[in-house]
Each structure stands twice: as C-alpha cells, then as structure tokens.
C-alpha cells in the first residue's frame, strides 16, 4: 500500500495532466474502499489546488478533499490556490475550483470571502456560461447556510456583499444559458424553502439559533428576491417556457412562492422584519393588480397539468398551484384542476414513488374544493388511504378525511336550515357507505387495523369538534376549514352532537369485533356514546314539545333511544367478556327503564332481560385469557351495573337477586365480591321495603367512561396492549397536528409581527480563562437532539498588545463525546489575531449515549511566530486524526515558530439535562409507568427563600408561591410537568416531571418539599428553609448511575445552582437534633409547671373525686373556625408584642 501511495504522490507531483488525473482517480478508489487517504489529499492540495492544473484535475482533487479532513494549514494552502485560480486565464479552471467555497470550514470563511468578494461578483456576471453557472450554484448553496447568515449578522461588509450576490443570482435566472437559469431558480428555491420551513442547514454541521439579526437578514434576502420576481414576472415566465423539462420544474416553486407572498400580504411583514433596527418599511396594498398577477401565474402553469407527459412536473405544478388557491382572490377551480391532475397520476400508476405524497397533498387541500367535488372524491380517497403502507401517512390522511366528513355534514345541514336546497350524499352515513368500508365494519374478525384506525379517528375528531374552535384568521390554509365548521355549528355548544350521533350509528358494528385483545377503538366508540347519552339525558326518556324540546332534539333523542335498543340486541353477538361488561355498563347507565313495556316482562327480547342475561354471562365466565377478559375489572363493572339497575327499577331487583345470590354462593366469587354482593342485596332489600327511596343506591350520570385500554403494570408486556398504545399515540398525534397544530416560529412572526417574543437569543456564554490570561476564551453550546450532536462555539480574544500570527485551539473530549472522524482531538488554527479583535470558531461533536461529558480546551499561541521567516511547517504539522504527530510537533518545530505558550482552560461541561427531551404524558399514564421503572435514585436538597418582603409579594402577585423560588429554573429545563400538588398553608408541595433521553429511555422525577422553621426564633417568624426530597426513576440503570455519581452537579443542572445537596447522614443528624431540642423544650415546660398542693387528709377523698371529675379531656370543645380565630389572634398579639419590643429597644 505504501508503494501504491508513493506512486500516486509521484504522479501528482508531475506536470502531466493525464498522469495527475489517473492518480486522482486511483486515490478516489482507495478512499471509496475505506482507506485513509489523508497523505494523498495533502499532496493533492499542494500540487493541484495550489498550483496551475487542468479543470478535470481540479474537480477530482476537490472530490478527494471532500472525502477526508484537511488540517488548518492545508486549508490555507487550498484557499490561496482558489484565490490564484480566480485570475487564471481559462474560466473552466476557475469554474472547477469555485465549489471549494462550500467545503471551507466556517472559521475560515469570513477571511476568504472578504479576499475574493470582487472575484465572486465578477464570476456571477462572467461572459463564460460555465463559470457563471458554477458561481451561481456555489453561492446558492453557501448563502442559504445558517453559519454564513450568522457571519453576516456580525460582519456588515460581508452582509452588503451577500445582498448584492443574491440580487445577481436572481437576475441570472433570466440568463440566456439554460443551465445558468436553471441553477439560479434552484438557488432561489433553496432560499425560500430554508426561510419558509425554518429547517436548520446541515451542510456545515452547525446548529445555530436564529437571532433577531439573522432573521432580519433572511427576511431582507427573501423580500428582495420576491419583489424582483414579482416585478418582472412576465419576463421570468417567458424565460421559463424556453427551458427544458428539468429546468422548467425548477422555476415553478420560486414564481408561485413570490406570487403567494405578494398576494397574501406577507411581503409587508418581511419588510418590517428586515428593517427591525431601521426605519419602518412602507406597507403594500392588496389591489386588483395582485389578483390579476396571481391569475397570470396560474394561467401560465395550468396547461402543464394536463399537457405534460412528465409525472414529476405534473406533481410539482399541481402541488404549488394548490397553495395559490387559498390566497385572497383564489378560486376553487384552481384547486380542482390541480387535484384532478394529481389523482390522474394515481390512476395511471405513474410516479409510484410519491404515492404517500399524492394522498397527503390531496387530503390536506381537500377543503379548498367546492362541496360537490369533496363529496365525489370522498369514497375514492378512502380506498386510496386504505392502501397506504406508512402508518403516519395513513393516520394523517384519515384525520384529514374525518375532519372533512364532519365539515361537509355540518355545512350541508346548516345550509338546509337556512333555506338552501339539500345536497344528496353529504351526511356521514352516505359518505361512508362504500361497499369495502361496510364490509370492514361488519366483519367480526379481520387482520387489518384500518377499521380500528378509522373508528378511532372519527370519534377523536368528534371530540375535537366538541372543543372550542381555534380563532379564525383572515387568510391561511386552515381559514376555510374553521369557517366552514363555525358555519355548520352556528357557534353553538351542542351542534356538534348532530354529526356525532351519525358517527355512532355508522360505527355501531364495532362492538361485535374480535380484535385479538385490542380495545382502543371500541373504548373510543363507547366513550362517545356515553357522552351523547349524558348530553341528551336518555335516562329520562324522549322529551316533549310542552317541556320545551325542539323538533330536532326530539328527533335526535328518538334516534339515540333506538340506537340503544339495537346495541342491547348486539350484546348477544359480543365476543369477549371484557367488551360485554363495558357495553353493559354504557347502556344500563343511561337506559330509560321507565319506558319499558311492562307487558313484555317475560319476553326474552326485552332490553332489561337481555342486559341481566349478559350480566350473568360475565359473572359466571370462566375464560381466563387476558386477551378476552380482565375478570377483576369486568366483575366490578357488572356488579355496579346491577346495583344501579336494581336501584332504578323494581323488576330488576327480582331478576338480579337470584343472580347475585348464586354468584355469592358459588366458587367464582372472592371475598371482596361476596361482601360487595351482600351490600348490593341489602340495598335492594331496603329499596324494596321503602319504594319512596328507590334512588338511594344510584346517583346522577356524569358522562364519564371509566374504562381504558391501559393494563396494569404486570400486564404491560402484552402484545395487544402495546398495539393499543401505539395506535392511540398515532391517532392522537395526527388529530392534534391537524386540529390544533403548534405554529412554527415563522408563522407566529408573520401573524403577530416583529413584536413576538419567540425571537431566540444565543445562550449565555461562560468564560473559560482567567482575568489576567493573555487570551480570553468564552464558549456556549447548542444541542441538536435529532442528529445527536453538540456544537461548541468559541470566541477567542487577544488581550495582549501584540498581533499574534498563529494561535492553536486544541479540543479534547471526555465522556460520551466523540468527533465525526474518530480522531482523539481536534485542532483549530487561528491566524493574525489583532489585539482586542474577537475571532470565532466552532467544534461539532456527537454524543453516543447518556453520560456526563465535557470538552477540554488548550490554547497554544506563538508570540514569535513568523519573525524568522516564512511559515513553512513541512512534515512537523499535525493533523486532527493523528495524535502521535502532536508529540512529534514539539521536536520538529522550525526555529522561526518560537516556543509556544500553553494556556489550559477550564473544562466546558455539558449538563446532563441537555441530553433530555420533555415527554408529554397524562397523570394517569405517568403514575401507571412510575412503579414499573426499575432504576431509582433518591437524594435530598435544601434552599432558602424569602417568606416576606418585596420578592415574596411579587411572587404572590404573579401566582407563584414564594417557597418554590429555588425550583423556578425547572420551567426552562427539558422536563414536562405532569402534575403538581401545592399546600400553601404549610409551604409543602409535590411536583411530578417526565422526560426522555435522546435515545428513548424514560426518566421520571418527583420532588417532595416540606418547610423547616428556622432555629433560635420566636413563634410567628417566617420560615425560610425548604427541604426537598428528589426521587428519580428511569427505565435504564445507567441513567440513575450517571445521576447518582454527581448529585450536586445534577442539582446544579436542574436548578442552576439554586438547590444545595444534603447528604442522607446530614439529614438524619439534623432530624435527630431537632427531635432532641423539641424533647428538651417539652421537658423544660413540664419542669416549669408548678406542682399541685397535696390536699388535707380529711378532704382527700373529696378532692380525688373532684380531680377525676375535672380531668382534662383531649377532645377540644372549640369548633374549627373558633380554633383558627384564636390562633390568628395569638399570632397578631405576638407580632404586635415583638414590634413594641423592637420600638422600645430603639
């Protein structure tokens, strides 16, 4: 291998272009085989990039450099070669060298861009098409990066140059060269997508927080490009017609984005954002010109929906035109043409790789169509969604379809109420009457989960409709949906029940399903049924007109009563005791027993007889399978049903008495069930003898459904329970994202303006050096949980009066951190550090697992570097990936470098909380998971707080108890507060938090707090010490081990140093000391009590009788109010006494 590398290096050093190209190809082959080619890349950097070479060799050398990592010195060599290539007479060579700009590290970019700014501008406007295309493509990728935007925020001259570069890129879209025009449109698309989606760029490996300046810079670039595209839209559209298919596809998004930004008025907000620190930008007006301009853009692209044979082009045009249908002045015809063209791709079985994208595009924009087309497409979309493979895509599409069904149904009914002609097929039953869907719903056993997903999505959509609708906006994708729902419900509180009643009628067959132990979909259905029965009070029968009921209410109550009777008959076909018990509870709790026909008391079809028969079936069931029954819960449910049925109807008492006696005397009942049966029988006996008190054993309905698909902890590993939890998570996520999505930062900025508080500032930096050190270093870090990376950003400041020609920053790692290339340390070389001029650099590392970790820095600066000659380091330079060369560096340094001064900095510790993510869960789920977490660590902490004074008063006014002041920083940590219980009277609390690590492990934390009275003070003084008990449980023992290794460090991470760790021995000693002091005080009080005088002998017996009669009682005769009043009086008198004493002393 050494011989091969030597041959390649000798070929690279030759002046023969053919031999150099062959050597570079061989080096690329070795790199692709996984071999270390860093010596070859260094040679290529010196012999190809920094020297005159052909364009082909420049491109191959650039590919070779991208496959490895260069040390800083060689980056300087490569950058000097790029500068020399700008003046090379052959533009092809310059075009081949320009892509090097995208590979240059962030710390080297500012100086390089400032050196070659004029050359870059000349390349963008060069007469050579290849050079112009290379410059446009390179800058389009480079200027969209977040690290470059941050550089522009701190460098005004670089920002002005970047503004002019973007203007030239926008003008290059009109270039006569098709490749240049295509690349310019692609660069504009990249800029718009970066700004619109707020997606962090991963090209440089840096994750930067958008500051106010960077937001203003991006807004200025976007606004400038949009205005130019809009102003010359006729020329750009004419130029796009001359492009080939691939080029035309690239121009669709920029033109549509510009039209939408102008028509929606977002351009005014962009101008305001871009001039945050300057004068206010003039606001535009939405006039006829913008409506006509949008229509021109649509008319330009519509012919390609049906006339193009390229599926990708049809899809691109259709997706973009859908966004224009929702702007002011948009028409449903635009959306219908786009959706029809996209669905044609589905029918032609073309563009099969984008099946999920096609369905998502159609269902997301379904609300833009008119009512007739929505109804006509509904059944077809159901079948398309059924065939989707990805669960997340299928659930999102189902959520959109279910919301559309409710919207169509409510809108059509409200239109009929307002006197319009009814439109057939708009009710829920008609929308879901497809033969395949009916077959799914009526089949008892099925291996497909689609029917469960459909029922759950429909029911959860009904519950979302029962909540207050989001605030309607003037524009936006969701405005039409919210408007239609508000129109359909008439802003009424109960109008949603009309569609919900149709949903429970359509989904009625689900109670007969055999889902192999899964119950989530059936529980959703029964929960909605119980809610409707409670709202319409079906227990009291159908209301009458004379009682104030409307005709619609009478109709709905009659339909609900009929549905209940059908469900009673379906009890015979229910497959499992678990579902049977839940259905019995749902029906019997709300059934109108007084409306039963007494003449049918002996009829087996009587609802009461069927219910009691099924109660018998559940009580005497011997099926022990956990998939079919949960006997403990099932028996409890039917016993409660028996008690309430017997309390409401005398005939139920007669039928249930025998059943309960048989069950009580049988061998299937345990001791608890026997006692419960005895209690129920006594209640029934009492009600029978006191008919006027028949409601003594039952209360009013609450509308709650007490059952859940969640199992006990010991049953947590069941496959059916895991599938239920997975389905619940998918459904809830899809419904929440659709109905009440969390708006992005850009959306909030565009809706609320620049006064939004969501503009993030960089985290506070910590100093790593001392005040008298010659170099000042401060650092902050940014974490990216998606990629598992942490980026450390450094600012180095030369505090001496000399200019330092070279400064090395060495970064070492400890813990779970490692560099991307596997090297043991990283080196950043900084050159020409002027006094008091800050220089920025960054290091990105990845985190392999949850562990406490740190970055260790050394600063090596050379005060006499360059004083003896040119900086030629030869073989003494060290690389990041070769630690042995670091030691050899000390021996092979040239005399002109001088002896380095080594400055060791403080370690930069990464808080453990940075490796956590907040995990939202309900209290029920949290306390269900808590006992099953195997790893646990407990510790105590203490902090002081101000119980009185200005801070305490301010805390009370803000609603936060002053005794929680030590834990206030927890609100900014990645923990989700599940629940809290606070006792303000005694200054105690319990807080529960949930989180997950980056790697999926669950972490739960409980904090118990109790106040401690300060020592050596009189009664009535403020309590200022809070003792906290922290309990952390995790699903992985390594997590608690890492936390327990440094408890004070963990507390500092949690509370920012607000809580001090207390060892258990100290806590026990303190508790024993308090107990001893209390016992001594009690003993002193007893000793100070005067002894009673002994009575005389003759009256001894009389005194003993009087003492027995006057013996004090432990029971106070005071009421609670009187005792509290006296305690308050004593406290006020004590406070007054202390104030008087202090005044007298003064």
From TrEMBL:
<protein>
    <recommendedName>
        <fullName>Protein TPLATE</fullName>
    </recommendedName>
</protein>
<dbReference type="GO" id="GO:0042802">
    <property type="term" value="F:identical protein binding"/>
</dbReference>
<feature type="region of interest" description="Disordered">
    <location>
        <begin position="1087"/>
        <end position="1121"/>
    </location>
</feature>
<dbReference type="InterPro" id="IPR016024">
    <property type="entry name" value="ARM-type_fold"/>
</dbReference>
<dbReference type="InterPro" id="IPR037501">
    <property type="entry name" value="TPLATE"/>
</dbReference>
<dbReference type="GO" id="GO:0009555">
    <property type="term" value="P:pollen development"/>
</dbReference>
<dbReference type="GO" id="GO:0009504">
    <property type="term" value="C:cell plate"/>
</dbReference>
<dbReference type="GO" id="GO:0006897">
    <property type="term" value="P:endocytosis"/>
</dbReference>
<dbReference type="GO" id="GO:0005886">
    <property type="term" value="C:plasma membrane"/>
</dbReference>
<dbReference type="InterPro" id="IPR011989">
    <property type="entry name" value="ARM-like"/>
</dbReference>
<feature type="compositionally biased region" description="Acidic residues">
    <location>
        <begin position="1099"/>
        <end position="1109"/>
    </location>
</feature>
<dbReference type="GO" id="GO:0000911">
    <property type="term" value="P:cytokinesis by cell plate formation"/>
</dbReference>
């Amino acid at each position: 291998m050494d011989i091969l590398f030597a041959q390649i290096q000798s070929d690279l050093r030759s002046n023969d272009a053919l031999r150099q190209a062959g050597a570079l190809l061989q080096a690329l082959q070795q790199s692709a085989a996984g071999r270390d080619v860093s010596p070859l890349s260094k040679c290529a950097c010196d012999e190809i990039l920094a020297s005159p070479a052909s364009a082909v060799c420049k491109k191959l050398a650039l590919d070779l450099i991208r496959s490895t990592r260069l040390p800083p010195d060689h980056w300087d060599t490569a950058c000097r070669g790029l500068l020399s290539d700008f003046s090379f007479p052959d533009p092809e060579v310059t075009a081949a060298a320009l892509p090097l700009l995208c590979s240059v590290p962030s710390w080297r970019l500012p100086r390089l861009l400032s050196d070659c700014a004029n050359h870059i501008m000349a390349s963008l406007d060069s007469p050579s098409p290849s050079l112009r295309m290379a410059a446009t493509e390179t800058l389009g990728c480079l200027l969209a990066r977040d690290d470059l935007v941050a550089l522009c925020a701190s460098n005004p001259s670089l920002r002005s140059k970047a503004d002019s570069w973007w203007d030239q890129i926008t003008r290059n879209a009109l270039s006569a060269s098709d490749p240049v025009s295509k690349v310019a449109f692609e660069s504009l698309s990249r800029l718009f997508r970066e700004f619109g989606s707020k997606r962090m760029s991963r090209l440089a490996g840096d994750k930067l927080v958008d500051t106010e300046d960077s937001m203003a810079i991006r807004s200025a670039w976007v606004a400038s490009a949009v205005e130019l595209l809009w102003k010359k839209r006729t020329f750009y559209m004419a130029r796009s017609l001359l492009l080939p298919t691939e080029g035309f596809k690239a121009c669709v998004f920029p033109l549509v984005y510009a039209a939408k930004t102008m028509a929606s008025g977002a351009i005014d907000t962009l101008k305001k954002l871009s001039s945050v620190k300057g004068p206010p930008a003039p606001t535009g007006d939405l006039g006829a010109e913008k409506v006509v301009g949008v229509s021109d853009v649509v008319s330009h692209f519509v012919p390609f929906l049906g006339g193009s044979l390229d599926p990708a082009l049809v899809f691109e045009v259709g997706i973009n035109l859908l966004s224009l249908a929702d702007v002011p002045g948009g028409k449903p015809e635009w959306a219908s043409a786009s959706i029809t063209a996209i669905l044609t791709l589905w029918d032609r079985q073309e563009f099969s790789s984008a099946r999920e994208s096609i369905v998502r595009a159609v269902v997301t924009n379904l609300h833009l169509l008119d009512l007739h087309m929505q109804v006509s497409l509904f059944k077809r979309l159901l079948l398309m969604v059924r065939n989707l493979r990805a669960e997340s895509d299928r659930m999102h599409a189902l959520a959109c379809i279910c919301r559309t069904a409710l919207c169509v149904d409510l809108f059509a009914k409200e239109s009929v109420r307002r006197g319009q002609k009814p439109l057939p097929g708009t009710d829920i039953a008609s929308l879901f009457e497809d033969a395949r869907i009916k077959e799914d719903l009526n089949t008892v056993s099925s291996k497909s989960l689609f029917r469960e997903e459909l029922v759950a999505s429909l029911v959860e959509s009904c519950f979302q409709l029962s909540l207050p609708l989001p605030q309607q906006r003037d524009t936006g994708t969701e405005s039409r949906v919210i408007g239609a729902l508000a129109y359909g419900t008439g802003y009424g509180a109960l109008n949603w029940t009309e569609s919900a009643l149709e949903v429970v009628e359509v989904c009625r067959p689900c109670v007969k399903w055999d889902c192999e132990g899964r119950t989530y979909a059936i529980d959703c259905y029964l929960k909605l049924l119980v809610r409707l029965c409670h709202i319409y009070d079906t227990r009291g029968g159908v209301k009458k007109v004379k009682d104030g009921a409307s005709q619609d209410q009478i109709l709905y109550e009659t339909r609900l009563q009929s549905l209940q009777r059908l469900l009673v008959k379906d009890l015979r076909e229910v497959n499992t005791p678990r579902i049977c018990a839940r259905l019995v509870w749902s029906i019997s709790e709300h059934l109108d027993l007084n409306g039963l026909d007494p003449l049918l008391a002996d009829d087996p079809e009587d609802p009461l007889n069927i219910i009691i028969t099924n109660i018998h079936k559940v009580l005497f069931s011997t099926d022990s399978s956990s998939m079919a029954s949960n006997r403990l819960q099932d028996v409890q449910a039917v016993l409660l049903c028996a008690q309430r049925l017997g309390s409401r109807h005398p005939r139920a008492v007669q039928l249930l008495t025998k059943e309960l006696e048989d069950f009580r005397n049988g061998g299937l009942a345990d001791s608890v069930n026997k006692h419960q049966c005895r209690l129920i029988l006594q209640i029934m006996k009492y009600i029978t003898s006191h008919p006027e008190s028949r409601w003594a054993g039952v209360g009013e309905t609450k509308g709650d459904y007490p059952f859940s698909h969640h199992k006990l902890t010991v049953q947590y590993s069941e496959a059916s329970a895991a599938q239920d939890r997975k389905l619940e998570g998918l459904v809830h996520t899809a419904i929440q994202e659709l109905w009440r999505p969390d708006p992005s930062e850009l959306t909030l900025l565009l809706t609320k303006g620049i006064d939004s508080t969501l503009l993030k500032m960089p985290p506070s930096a910590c100093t790593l050096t001392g005040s008298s050190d010659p170099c000042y270093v401060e650092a902050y870090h940014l974490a990216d949980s998606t990629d598992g990376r942490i980026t450390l950003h450094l600012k180095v400041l030369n505090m001496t009066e000399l200019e330092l020609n070279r400064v090395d920053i060495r970064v070492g790692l400890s813990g779970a951190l490692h560099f991307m290339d596997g090297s043991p340390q990283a080196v950043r070389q900084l050159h020409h550090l002027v006094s008091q001029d800050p220089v920025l650099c960054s290091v990105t590392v990845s985190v392999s697992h949850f562990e406490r970790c740190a970055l260790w820095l050394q600063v090596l600066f050379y005060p006499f570097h360059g004083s003896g000659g040119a900086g030629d380091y030869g073989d003494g330079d060290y690389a990041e990936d070769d630690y042995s060369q670091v030691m050899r560096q000390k021996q092979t340094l040239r005399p002109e470098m001088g002896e380095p001064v080594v400055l060791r900095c403080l370690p930069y510790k990464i808080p453990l909380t940075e490796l956590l993510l907040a995990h939202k869960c309900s209290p029920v789920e949290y306390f269900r998971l808590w006992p099953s977490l195997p790893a646990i660590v407990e510790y105590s902490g203490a902090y002081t707080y101000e119980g009185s004074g200005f801070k305490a008063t301010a805390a009370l006014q803000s609603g936060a108890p002053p005794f929680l002041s030590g834990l206030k920083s927890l609100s900014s940590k990645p923990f989700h507060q599940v629940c809290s219980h606070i006792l303000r009277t005694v200054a105690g609390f319990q807080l529960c938090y949930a989180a997950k690590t980056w790697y999926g492990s669950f972490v739960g934390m409980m904090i118990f707090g109790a106040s401690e009275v300060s020592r050596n003070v009189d009664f009535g003084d403020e309590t200022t010490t809070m003792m906290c008990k922290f309990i952390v449980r995790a699903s992985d023992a390594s997590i608690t081990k890492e936390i327990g290794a440094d408890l004070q460090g963990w507390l500092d991470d949690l509370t920012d140093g607000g809580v001090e760790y207390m060892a258990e021995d100290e806590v026990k000693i303190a508790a024993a000391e308090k107990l001893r002091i209390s016992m001594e005080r009690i003993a002193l009080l007893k000793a100070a009590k005067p002894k009673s005088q002994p009575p005389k002998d003759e009256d001894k017996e009389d005194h003993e009788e009087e003492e027995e009669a006057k013996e004090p009682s432990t029971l106070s005769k005071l009421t609670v109010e009187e005792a509290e009043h006296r305690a308050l009086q004593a406290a006020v008198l004590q406070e007054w006494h202390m104030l008087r004493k202090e005044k007298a002393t003064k």
